[in-house]
Amino acid sequence: MPERFFVTPLENQDAKKMVPSLSFLIQHSNPSSQRITRIVFDLGIRRQIDQYNEHILNHVATRRPLFTTPDVIESLAQGGLSTDDIDAVILSHLHWDHVGTPKEFQTSQFIIGSGGHALSQGKPGGGSHNHFEPDLLPLQRTIELHHPRDRQRDKSHHPTTATPWIDTLRSIPWKPVGPFPFALDIFGDSSFFIVWAPGHLPGHLNALCRKKGGEYVYLGGDAAHDVRLITGEKDIATWADNAGQVCCIHQDPDAARETIDHIRKAQSGESALGPVQVILAHDSRWADEAKRERKFFPGHI
């Protein structure tokens, strides 16, 4: 990954680094029924690269070398699970390196942020990374969350085959949690929140998960592509394309900075949540440590 597209200032404008595209398994046990609900947050990179469309493949060619194994399905299998065991998939957003292969999840519900459906059907935005797949998700099993500021909740993109648990997302209100102004308390017990995290792309979502010990872990998706943005050591980069147009990896840099500020406050413990562990989708340092400490499934964070 060329660092100059993500952070500034840089001493070496040619600096590159290998990064992961992380996926996470969340398991929630109902205290009454003991039923376990399993959610996968982000699906990472597609195992079979040639299944992306032509526009995405042109961008992928600029991101070599690229490794696709183990992917989500192989990782689940290492812990004895298959896609049939996954109740829901939450996509932080619809960029190619987060959507994996949804068609392999034949029984799972899909959750995307407000604006995600229109984004996938519309024209690509600026930059070679902003190309999408109109037929990516099964519409009958995909719920698009209502915008936090919408009084009239649009139900046009709710699935016709929604399970009772997923169907409750129609009525759950967005409320503040810690430093985050908008979050959905999915299970009603403060154990798992979908967090509205604007800036990177329309409908960008993050997740706040409570561990058994009570500590929280924040899954930051592409809210930031480098931990130095969270610490304040670096700022969001911009660059000029071949036509001289100024580009940014975030569609709304100001909103992205505000989201990063919320994450920074959570990480530093400036709220009732206490110090929150923050994991970004492309955090190579965290991934290396997790591998050494065997945190990847069937391990745990």
Automatic annotation (TrEMBL):
Molecular function as annotated in GO: hydrolase activity; metal ion binding
Keyword Phosphoprotein (UniProt): no
Alphabetic keyword roster: Hydrolase, Metal-binding, Zinc
The organism's place on the tree of life at top rank: Eukaryota
Domain Metallo-beta-lactamase per the UniProt entry, residue ranges: 76-220
Cofactor: Zn(2+)
Stated family: Belongs to the metallo-beta-lactamase superfamily.
Name of the protein this chain belongs to: Metallo-beta-lactamase domain-containing protein
Source organism: Clonostachys rhizophaga
